[in-house]
Design brief:
Elements: E1 7-13, E2 18-25, E3 28-35, E4 44-45, H1 70-83, E5 110-116, H2 121-126, E6 131-138, H3 153-158, H4 184-192, H5 196-204, H6 222-229, H7 232-240, H8 255-262, H9 265-273, H10 288-294, H11 298-306, H12 321-328, H13 331-339, H14 354-361, H15 364-372, H16 387-394, H17 397-405, H18 420-427, H19 430-438, H20 453-460, H21 463-471, H22 485-491, H23 495-501
Parallel strand pairs: 4-5
Antiparallel strand pairs: 1-2, 1-6, 2-3, 3-5
Helix pairs in contact: 4-5, 4-6, 6-7, 6-8, 7-9, 8-9, 8-10, 9-11, 10-11, 10-12, 11-13, 12-13, 12-14, 13-15, 14-15, 14-16, 15-17, 16-17, 16-18, 17-19, 18-19, 18-20, 19-21, 20-21, 20-22, 21-23, 22-23
Keywords: ANK repeat, Repeat
InterPro entries: Ankyrin_rpt (IPR002110), Ankyrin_rpt-contain_sf (IPR036770)
Pfam families: Ank, Ank_2
């Protein structure tokens, strides 16, 4: 008989703490049952047609024994084995028959039971409502040629569970892995360290795959930890083992979000392929795409967009992915989002647009891309500040030039009556003052306080700005509340301005 580990399943006894492993050998299923907790169990390899014993429990499955006595149970199994013509040795060690030799996983305290698939025993077992069914592995697909006539374990597992498809989950390559006793914390640590073999061993040993550490790690799961660290192998193992790809930590961050934030493109791809919710939000409204855009991870952004992620979903402050990408100066991400159809004028709650925030941060490349895409160059925030005003205030000469070339209005005022020229004069940006004057900015336009650009420059001691304004023909005696620029400069102790303003 060809002994190939083709497929396997694991059934978790919901009331017993036992696991049953199944693998397919030609037209038979081989069951490996071992006790999970402390206590005794049997050892040996026997063959019992169409019967499964749930060792050391009073539950009877396909009924040959209900005893919990070790010797009595072992004796009955040996008797059944002898009746079937494939008895194990008297001490319970595996039979020397080549049909059973070395076919079970290397597990401690195991009973090996072979079941004829054609007689339906496995189907009855899988549909037993006292068991939670979980498909464990699909190994060596090419070897399935030996099993064309036998029902596959994954098909058997679905019998009776059509309305509960989430119960059936695929787990790769756990056969031959030595089970490891451990805790959920051990699994998280193994995931953190990218110890794939330990992860597999702990899973084979029955550790809860979605265990969370609520006290010390805010609800982090093993999958979240692996995704955060970018360990693709562990992520793949956990996903195929049935880890909940959308299970979030306490503040709502799911594995996909943390992988997107960190820029782990391979992990993001695995999670999306596993069905992760591409638009699952953190409690503050942040999405995976938002995180990837903010951090400039172009490959992740592109993959999420291709997967259909919501490109205009906003954070709690109203900022969309395009906004935060513009804010951080990620030209390539901004370009990708625009090409995907992101709203180029979508404003945050304070009214600022992607163009305005990019201008305020001095990101000339982003400003250029947004202007070419048709972003509104005059759209102001809730205080009336335009992109040009923001750039003039922050001192970005290149951005000011780009906006002026695009036709931005140099005289548009804020709610306080301040113009871009006023803002530049106030901050001492003399080159921007010169550029605005050349673009036709009104040099005498006062803010609501009555202060003119020259007055505010004199008050703040900006000599080069004062000189530039005077050279442009600004009236030197036009002031605020009866004070002239000369008087405010003298009062503020800016003696170097006195000569200029006299």
């Amino acid at each position: 008989m060809s002994e190939k580990w083709i497929q396997a399943c694991v059934l978790h006894g919901s009331k017993t703490g036992y696991h049953v492993f199944v693998h397919q050998v030609d037209r038979h299923f081989r069951i490996v049952d071992w006790k999970k907790g402390d206590g005794w169990s049997l050892r040996g390899a026997v063959t019992i047609s169409c019967h499964i014993v749930h060792a050391a429990s009073k539950m009877q499955i396909q009924g040959i024994c209900t005893t919990t006595d070790k010797n009595e149970l072992q004796g009955k199994i040996q008797a059944c084995a002898q009746q079937s013509g494939d008895g194990g040795d008297a001490d319970g060690t595996p039979s020397s028959d080549p049909k059973t030799k070395d076919t079970k996983p290397q597990l401690t305290s195991a009973i090996v039971v072979e079941i004829d698939a054609a007689e339906g025993g496995v189907l009855n077992l899988y549909s037993n409502p006292k068991w939670d069914v979980e498909v464990m592995v699909l190994v060596k697909p090419s070897a399935a040629e030996d099993n064309r006539q036998a029902p596959a374990p994954i098909n058997c597992a679905m019998i009776g569970w059509e309305k509960q498809p989430s119960v059936v989950r695929v787990i790769p390559s756990l056969l031959g892995v030595k089970p490891i006793r451990g805790t959920g914390a051990d699994l998280i640590e193994a995931a953190h360290k990218a110890d794939e073999m330990k992860v597999k061993g702990l899973l084979a040993g029955g550790v809860s795959i979605d265990w969370t550490d609520d006290e010390e790690m805010e609800g982090v799961t093993p999958l979240y930890m692996a995704a955060q660290e970018g360990h693709e192998g562990v992520v793949s193992t956990l996903l195929q083992a049935g880890a909940d790809e959308n299970k979030a930590k306490n503040r709502g961050a799911a594995p996909l979000l943390i992988a997107a934030l960190k820029g782990h493109h391979g992990v993001v791809t695995l999670l999306l392929q596993a069905g992760a919710d591409k638009n699952k939000v953190r409690t503050d409204g942040v999405t995976p795409l938002w995180m990837a855009a903010q951090n400039g991870h172009l490959d992740v952004v592109s993959t999420l967009l291709q997967a259909g992620a919501d490109k205009n979903k906003t954070w709690k402050n109203g900022a969309a992915p395009l906004y935060v990408a513009a804010q951080k100066g990620h030209v390539d991400v901004v370009t990708a989002l625009l090409e995907a159809g992101a709203d180029k004028n979508k404003a945050a709650k304070d009214g600022s647009t992607p163009l305005l925030i990019a201008a305020a941060k001095g990101h000339e490349g982003v400003v250029s891309v947004l202007l070419k895409a048709g972003a509104f160059r005059h759209k102001a925030d809730n205080n009336g500040a335009t992109p040009l005003y923001a750039a003039a205030q922050e001192g970005s000469q290149e951005v000011v030039s780009a906006l002026l070339e695009a036709g931005a209005d140099p005289n548009k005022v804020t709610k306080d009556g301040a113009t871009p020229l006023y803002a530049a004069a106030q901050e001492g940006h003399h080159k921007i003052v010169s550029a605005l004057l050349q673009a036709g900015a009104h040099r005498h336009k006062a803010a609501n306080t009555g202060a003119t650009p020259l007055f505010i420059a004199a008050q703040n001691g900006h000599k080069e700005v004062v000189s530039t304004l005077l050279q442009s023909g600004t009236e030197k005696n036009k002031g605020k509340n009866g004070l002239t620029p000369l008087q405010i400069a003298t009062r503020q102790g800016h003696n170097d301005l006195v000569t200029l303003l006299q």
